[in-house]
Each structure stands twice: as C-alpha cells, then as structure tokens.
Design a protein that fits this description.
There is one protein chain. The chain is mainly beta. About 0% of the residues lie in helices and about 50% in strands. Strands 2, 4, 5, 6, 9, 10 and 11 form a seven-stranded mixed beta sheet that branches. Strands 1-3-8-7 form a four-stranded antiparallel beta sheet, with no helix packed on it.
C-alpha cells in the first residue's frame, strides 16, 4: 500500500517561510515524479510544483515561481517544498502527489497522479 505523508504546515506571517516535507512509503518510488498541489476553501485543487526522479526537470506554477523550490532526497523517499516570501493567497491545504513517470501533458493536472497524501494546512496571515 502506497502512503504519502505530508508535514511542515502551520501558521506564518506574510513574508515568512515554511518547508513542507512529503515522506513516501509502501513501494519503491524509483522513476516516480513527485508533485505538490494546493486547495484553498471553495476553490479547485491547483498545481504548485513537480520534480522528476533525477531532479533534472522541475515545473512550477507561475504564481509561485521564484518563491517556492521543490527538491527531493531519493535515498530517503522524501520530497520537499521550500516556500519563501509567503503571501496570504498561498493559504491552502497542500497535498503531495506521485506518478510513475513524467508526462509533460498532464504533469500540472490532478489526473496526472496516481497517489495522494492527506494534506497539510498552510495559513499565511497578513
């Protein structure tokens, strides 16, 4: 059984930073692309960032480019999302997702991923 467990969320003031972690377990994730999505109240789940197995390919939403950085440690089966210069509009539940391979057509869509975590709340106060 595949499990993705997010951690690191919390309450932070605008301009602050947080680092989210997603620990994967239950199978080998060799070759898997990992991603972060977020969902604010009353809104659809939206893509934030994704990273290929090697880390050689990264993808970002325009709204977070230059502020957020996705990275991974394959030895530990962990993916990170470093979030800097946070804004109130970044407030959401952040979800980790995994897919067996990179598909650039769907990498920014929820349908591109087979496994999902339960989410971690990020709240940015103004």
């Amino acid at each position: 059984q595949v499990q993705l467990v997010e951690s690191g969320g919390g309450l932070v003031q605008a301009g602050g930073s947080l680092r989210l972690s997603c620990a994967a377990s239950g199978r080998t994730f060799s070759g898997y692309v990992m991603a972060w999505f977020r969902q604010a109240p009353g809104k659809e789940r939206e893509f934030v960032a994704a990273i290929s197995w090697s880390g050689g390919m990264t993808f970002y939403a325009d709204s977070v480019k230059g502020r957020f950085t996705i990275s991974r440690d394959n030895a530990k089966n962990v993916v990170y999302l470093q979030m800097n210069s946070l804004k109130p509009e970044d407030t959401a539940v952040y979800y980790c997702a995994a897919a067996p391979r990179v598909n650039v057509v769907v990498v920014r869509t929820t349908r591109g991923y087979d496994y999902w975590g339960q989410g971690t709340q990020v709240t940015v106060s103004s």
